[in-house]
Specification:
The complex is a heterodimer of chains A (165) and B (954).
Chain A (H helix, E strand, L loop, with lengths): L1 E8 L4 E6 L5 H15 L9 E3 L1 H4 L4 E7 L2 E7 L5 H19 L4 H6 L1 H11 E2 L2 E2 L4 H19 L14
Antiparallel strand pairs in A: 1-2, 1-5, 3-4, 4-5, 6-7
Chain B lengths: L15 H10 L8 H16 L4 H18 L7 H8 L5 H11 L11 H8 L4 H14 L2 H14 L5 H17 L3 H12 L5 H15 L10 H10 L3 H14 L4 H17 L3 H14 L4 H16 L3 H14 L4 H6 L1 H7 L5 H14 L5 H14 L2 H20 L5 H13 L6 H14 L4 H12 L11 H13 L7 H8 L9 H24 L6 H12 L2 H11 L9 H14 L2 H9 L4 H23 L8 H28 L9 H14 L9 H4 L13 H9 L8 H24 L7 H9 L5 H10 L17 H13 L34 H15 L3 H4 L23 H10 L6 H5 L8 H5 L14 H11 L2 H6 L1
Helix pairs in contact in B: 1-2, 2-3, 3-5, 4-5, 5-7, 6-7, 6-8, 7-9, 8-9, 8-10, 9-10, 9-11, 10-42, 11-13, 12-13, 12-14, 13-15, 14-15, 14-16, 15-16, 15-17, 16-17, 17-20, 19-20, 20-22, 21-22, 23-25, 24-26, 25-26, 26-28, 27-28, 28-33, 28-34, 28-35, 29-32, 29-33, 31-33, 33-34, 34-38
The chains are: A alpha+beta (165), B mainly alpha (954).
Subcellular location (chain B): Endomembrane system; Golgi apparatus
Pfam families (chain B): Adaptin_N (PF01602)
Subunit structure (chain B): Adaptor protein complex 3 (AP-3) is a heterotetramer.
């Protein structure tokens, strides 16, 4: 199964953290720090795999890929295929790209819950759910429709950026 | 704005965007700092969460979630608000997201979510169902799993494929938490395998792949289903998972292999998807490696991978090779060039993988060549990889008592070369091996001494802290096997050279102890074996003199920070004497040419002995005030010996030109005794030896030397000022004190001053010689319980005893390969293959039951429902006959099953939290059989089942 999906920027700041086996936040951040420690020491144009037995215990594998300023990281075990995970990562990024039209780091920063929703349509409980990005986009669109219709019932929608800091 | 009136709260609430912008503006260094900003926001959030407006609440929760997830802020205070929000349609997505991020299976409010989850699972709105499933797949605990199994069961037949997929994937967690749900849902799960929708099949196969990881045996009866998918499907995702399942099933059932190998090859030839290709290759290499055709096809693909530009494929190609290596070594040999080339790849992963592969190839015939190649690569590569290479050479060569090493001379030289590699940080391993080989392989000792000499005489090495451990071993080896040394004098000089002050005290102590042994050896030769044997000493001395070693000697004390060499008038006096005698070129050369001319040779051996004594005295004298007890003790010992010898032998010999071999005095006795003690061979000691030694009464092992540190901490005087004191001390008391010390030490009675023996225990490494002997006489020898004697026996007897106790370790050299001494009980901790843990768990047991039920009564399991069960607990159980039930299981059920449930229900409830101990507790429910069955029974059962398989397949 897939154990974790992590997106962080090249400074090591996490942008998305999803563990499929419960970890305390402290542990999560500790793990991310160790992953970042390994990631930033990697040269360019090398393979996308890292041995992470020391971080996640035996049987753990990790693939990562750099997209602009972001590292996308999948941690999984022997039940998954390494190359398939890279494909899945591509699906995830494509979907993000479609949902945010030319996704950039800021989109992911400011759309915390939407990114989670997208991920939830691709991976469920650590298993691959959907591998077609257009299907995912459809599902996410439906979800936000649900959110919109119900939020229109609310009296006062919050207006982003309206209040000063 | 912090003082927003509560009325205006909802109007002027900060949104998540505001929060994020704020977070981005504040850094730990700004004022107010980031943490101040966060705590301010948290206060706001806490207030907003208590608001009555759902939207305010959900915005607050969203902000909290953000802080929790990405800034590790604890959000445990908000768990109840999550439950509250889950009922509002608008905030449902957020609430479920929060649940999946915040809750774990112990969260107390989790049960409060049960009803909401059930409502949503049965909702007509797809999105609500979907959200509930998302959450359930992550947060389900035992209670939730039990209570919602029925609802999931319904969803497994949902007409909406989208939901069916999610429900199927949810089952993994539900099965895991509540194994009895298998009985309810398994049949429908299997039915979904035949679905026409690829997504559904993919999900089902994913579930089975996950479940088969725990106990594949239980899923053997489903092999025909998987086989059908394997043959029919063209979806890569599905195929990968099916291959993974077969990779687990084939090793259990040989006939399966024959069946699947052809379709797998077919996929391998057909597909263009690298992921599938790799999975096929992995499966073939992993469990179908006896099918040559398949392996050949796979090797072809691997070769393509290896040649590919994509480092990922190269890496995976190498990885695949290493899985096949144990069975088909030719596979690597064919690609040897590539593997070696990969050693210098830019990618660390690839380099490491190549290294592993290369080490897998090592055998007696190629070890020399491979190590040569590797060492050249080690020289070129970065420190980390260099050490990785060295480490794997060391571990592979030393494996199983140096199994692959035939030519130990070569290996010792290799170790020597490795020590000189700049980045080498494997000092500890090399140290261990040098000593280990010295003790185990008798024939190689002369080489060992030669290599050690090369290391010891190189002053440059002393400056590298990583080499210190190796030097320690070299020093020990030189001292222990000094009889192989061609030039003991040079050795003493090397051991006492000024730069040894760079060594850590404990290693320096080993140096001094080794010098002691060499000195004892020389003296013994001088006194008792002045015939041919000693001539080498003579010759070497002459060489030494001509190569200007006396210069070195004279420089030695002044280079040593501890002393100036002139505080000890007698030594300088004698040194001059010696120089006069020794620097005569003619005399020196005549010695070389006529070593057997007895009169001259005896005279010059007297000179050489005096030379040695002088070196020792001048270099070690200043150390007799050392703050380190280890050094201090050894220095005292050796100085005491020097004093004694000078008084009793050389004092007269230098005047009379004759020597006192007839003297039956104390000193010669001691020398003799000492020689016997030192020439005692040390054998390897079993790693379990220590455990066999009973702790003598009155020895407090935990007690350490902290007291000593305190004492020394008070008197850390500059060394120069302590000189006079030391000098007086050594002059007055040395002859008596150190003699006593010395006798204690050398006769191996080792009077056990508690502090020192404590230290010895703690730093056994540095005490190799003494420690070993200590164990052999103070305690019953580890491997020879018969030899046991009191420690008060006189020293001669003890020496003999030691001899006996160690004698069994010596073996005659019969083979061309030098004998490597091994202990009967193995020196390395024997790793007993753990008894195969009963791996199958409750889930697999349930699966077995269901599958057996399917065979026997295919329909009953899907229809029989418990009428009296509440809808939430509705489960389909086969008409179970398990009336008896084992006590263990009942008890475990009782302990956790707090609510009053029907007895029947309780029997069918298997508790499992996914925790290992419950997983091990074997309790399974099988028709009419005892519950507490063990592995043997389980496998017997399978044996009954397995013959069915081929019928399915055919």
């Amino acid at each position: 199964m897939i154990r974790a999906v992590i997106v962080m920027n090249d400074q090591g700041k996490p942008r998305l953290i999803k563990f499929y086996q419960y970890q305390t936040v402290e542990k999560q951040h500790e793990l991310i720090r160790s992953i970042y420690g390994v990631l930033c020491s990697r040269a360019e144009n090398v393979s996308n795999f890292i041995k992470v037995d020391s971080i996640f215990g035996p049987d753990a594998r990790l693939v990562y890929k750099t997209y602009a300023t972001l590292y996308f990281v999948f941690v999984f075990d022997s039940s998954e295929n390494e190359l398939a995970m890279l494909d899945l990562m591509q699906v995830f990024v494509e979907t993000l790209d479609k949902c945010f039209s030319n996704v950039c780091e800021l989109d992911i920063v400011f759309n915390f819950n939407k990114v989670h929703a997208i991920l939830d349509e691709i991976i469920l409980g650590g298993q691959v759910l959907e591998t077609s990005s257009s299907e995912v986009v459809k599902a996410v669109a439906e979800l936000s429709k649900l959110e919109r219709t119900s939020s229109s019932v609310m009296l006062i929608p919050s207006i982003p950026g309206w209040h000063g800091r | 704005m912090s003082g927003t009136p509560s009325l205006m709260e909802s109007l002027f609430q900060r949104t998540l965007d505001d929060l994020i912008k704020g977070l981005r503006l504040h850094t730990p260094t700004t004022t107010p700092s980031l943490s101040a900003f966060i705590s301010k926001s948290l206060t706001e959030i806490r207030r907003e969460l208590t608001s009555t407006t759902a939207s305010t609440k959900s915005t607050a929760l969203l902000k909290l979630l953000y802080l929790h997830s990405l800034h590790s802020i604890s959000a445990s205070f908000a768990t109840f608000h999550v439950i509250e929000l889950s009922s509002s349609p608008a905030s449902k997505p957020l609430a479920y997201l929060a649940a999946s991020l915040l809750f774990d299976s112990t969260t107390d409010v989790l049960l409060l979510l049960t009803n909401q989850l059930r409502k949503d699972l049965n909702s007509t709105i797809t999105r609500e169902v979907s959200l509930a499933l998302n959450a359930l797949s992550v947060i389900a605990n035992q209670d939730l799993a039990r209570d919602l199994t029925g609802d999931l069961f319904v969803l497994l037949n949902s007409s909406k494929v989208f939901l069916r997929k999610k429900a199927i994937l949810c089952l993994i967690r539900v099965f895991d938490k509540y194994p009895d749900s298998v009985r309810v849902c398994f049949k429908r799960l299997v039915e979904n395998l035949e679905s026409r929708d690829e997504g559904v099949v993919s999900a089902v196969v994913g579930v089975f792949c996950e479940m088969a990881k725990v106990d594949p045996r239980a899923y053997l009866p489903l092999a025909p289903e998987f086989f059908r998918v394997l043959v029919e499907s063209r979806n890569n995702w599905i195929l990968i998972k099916v291959l993974k399942i077969f990779a687990r099933l084939v090793p259990l059932e040989g006939r399966l292999g024959k069946k699947v190998v052809e379709p797998i090859c077919e996929h391998l030839r057909r597909t263009g998807a690298k992921s599938l290709v790799f999975e096929c290759v992995r499966t073939i290499f992993g469990c179908l490696s006896e099918y040559d055709v398949a392996v050949n096809v796979a090797m072809e693909k691997v070769r393509e991978f290896l040649m590919d530009d994509d480092p990922n494929l190269r890496y995976l190609g190498l990885q695949a090779l290493s899985t096949v290596a144990p069975k088909h070594l030719w596979a690597i040999q064919e690609n040897k060039e590539f593997v070696i080339r990969a050693l210098s790849d830019a990618d660390v992963n690839i380099r490491f993988e190549a290294l592993t592969l290369l080490m897998a190839m090592v055998c007696e015939d190629n070890v020399v060549e491979i190590c040569r190649v590797l060492v050249t690569y080690a020289l070129k590569s970065d420190p980390e990889f260099c050490n990785e290479i060295l480490g794997s050479i060391l571990s592979v060569c030393s494996k199983n008592y140096y199994e692959v090493v035939v030519d130990f001379d070569w290996y010792i030289s290799l170790l020597g070369d490795m020590s000189r590699i700049v980045h080498c940080q494997k000092g500890e391993e090399i140290e261990d091996q040098l000593i280990d080989i010295g003790m185990r392989v008798r024939d190689v000792r002369s080489t060992l001494v030669r290599v050690s000499r090369q290391l010891l005489i190189d002053p440059a090495l002393l400056g590298n802290p990583f080499v210190h451990r190796i030097l320690c071993a070299a020093a020990w080896v030189s001292g222990e096997y000094v009889e192989f040394s061609k030039n003991p004098i040079e050795l003493i000089e090397a051991l006492l050279q000024p730069r040894t002050s760079l060594l850590p005290p404990l290693i320096r102590a080993v140096y001094i102890q080794s010098a002691f042994k060499v000195l004892a050896f020389c003296l013994h030769c001088f006194l008792f074996r002045k015939d041919v044997t000693f001539s080498f000493l003579l010759g070497s001395l002459s060489e030494e003199i001509t190569t200007g070693s006396s210069d070195r000697l004279r420089n030695a004390p002044s280079g040593d920070s501890d002393g100036d060499g002139s505080y000890y008038p007698r030594s300088t006096l004698e040194e001059t004497e010696y120089d006069i005698a020794g620097n005569g070129e003619a005399a020196g050369s005549s010695h070389v040419h006529t070593p057997l001319a007895s009169s001259k040779s005896t005279k010059s051996t007297g000179d050489s002995i005096r030379h040695i004594l002088n070196i020792v005295e001048t270099t070690l004298g200043p150390l007799s005030g050392s703050n380190d007890v280890e050094i201090l003790e050894r220095v005292r010992n050796i100085l005491g010996l020097v004093m004694m010898i000078k008084q009793e032998f050389l004092g007269t010999s230098s005047q009379e030109g004759d020597d006192n071999q007839g003297n039956n005095n104390n000193a010669s006795k001691i020398i003799n005794l000492m020689h016997e003690a030192f020439s005692e061979e040390l054998g390897p000691v079993s790693i379990s030896a220590q455990e066999k030694v009973p702790i003598p009464d009155g020895v407090v092992l935990k007690q350490d030397l902290e007291d000593l540190d305190l004492i020394y901490g008070d008197i850390k005087l500059p060394l120069s000022s302590s000189f006079s004191l030391v000098k007086r001390h050594s002059l007055e008391n040395d002859s008596i004190l150190t003699l006593e010390n010395y006798r204690k030490d050398e006769s191996e009675t080792e009077g056990k001053p508690t502090a020192l023996s404590e230290h010895r225990k703690r730093h056994g490494l540095y005490y190799l010689p003494l420690e070993r002997k200590e164990t052999s006489d103070d305690y019953p020898p580890a491997n020879d319980p018969t030899v046991q004697d009191n420690i008060n026996a006189d020293t001669e007897n003890l020496a003999k005893l030691t001899e006996q106790s160690l004698v069994f370790k010596k073996k005659a050299n019969t083979k061309p390969r030098p004998v490597v001494v091994k202990l009967d009980d193995g020196d390395s901790r024997s790793i007993l293959p753990k008894k195969q843990e009963p791996k199958d768990d409750l889930v697999s047991d349930a699966v077995r039951d269901v599958l057996r039920g399917n065979e026997a009564e295919p329909s009953s399991s899907s229809t029989a429902k418990e009428p009296d069960r509440a809808s939430s607990k509705r489960g389909k159980e086969k008409a179970l006959v398990d009336g008896s039930g084992d006590p263990l299981r009942i008890e475990s059920s009782r302990s956790r099953d707090k609510s009053s449930r029907s007895k029947h229900h309780r029997q069918n409830k298997e508790k499992k939290d996914g925790s290992p101990e419950t997983g091990k507790a074997k309790s399974s429910s099988r028709h009419g059989t005892r519950r507490s069955k063990n592995r043997a029974e389980g496998s017997a059962n399978i044996a009954v089942q397995s013959p069915v398989i081929p019928d399915f397949l055919l």
